[in-house]
Amino acid sequence: MNIVSPSILSCDFLNIESEIKHFEGSKDVWMHLDIMDGHFVPNLTFGEPIIKQICNKFNIPMDAHLMVSNPEWHMNEMKDYGLHNITFHIEACDNSLELITKAKESYPSVGISIKPKTPVSDLTSDMLEKLDLILVMSVEPGFGGQGFIPESIDKIKELDRLRKDNGYSYQIQVDGGVKGDNSKVIREAGANNLVAGSYVFKQPANKYLNIVETLR
Ligand code: DX5
Ligand code: ZN
């Protein structure tokens, strides 16, 4: 079953509790938490105090997407929150392999993300072997509601081929511009975890779960 990860970046922040509650009890749904620092990306979202409360409140796998310049600090800070997956950007790291190894001591699932201009070849076989997830950014990170970059499909296919050829077990997650009209192509390329922000949360709340099902 494909996983869908609604990104709360596009939710109603004044009603965050009731927004997230809609997904409780849904199978193969993760909540995607976009953590932006105003430095690695121009935008700023939310950080540790809010994430901690969200993790305490809900029994949904929480998926942290770190768009920060100092991923190691945040990983360490959040290690006891009960997050399911933590993903950091390869572009923000001097030694990604070391950070993956460290993160695996504290998190059930560890992912690495590549921005649209970062080639798949920047991920070494040592990294691919250890990773639980690879996040292909299909927009420039920082903002919701942007258009899907079509070249991302080739990167997904390449990661899928590497996975098959080498027996790697990582999930391929795709984030940015995922909608009803492109989710099939993205899945057929090999992705099995789709992040969607605006496409889910722009709907009336009673449609959120239907939209999740249509994406997979
Ligand atoms: C963008 C974030 C995404 C964002 C996606 O930098 O990483 O998770 O919420 O938003 P949509 O689905 O609207 O493109
Ligand atoms: Zn994201």
Describe this entry's structure for a reader:
There is one protein chain. By secondary structure, this protein is an alpha/beta fold. The protein has one domain (3-214): Aldolase class I (TIM Barrel). Helix content is 33%, strand content 19%. The chain is built from 9 helices and 8 strands. It has an 8-stranded parallel β-sheet. The longest helix has 15 residues, at 152-166. It starts with a strand and ends with a helix. The relative contact order is 0.17. The model has no long low-confidence stretch (mean pLDDT 98). Bound molecules: D-xylitol-5-phosphate and zinc ion. Zinc ion (ZN) is lined by residues 7, 32, 34, 65, 175, 195.
What's the short version?
The protein has 216 residues and is α/β, with parallel strands linked by helices.
Distinctive features:
alpha/beta, TIM Barrel, eight-stranded parallel β-sheet, 9 helices, about 35% helix, binds D-xylitol-5-phosphate, binds zinc ion
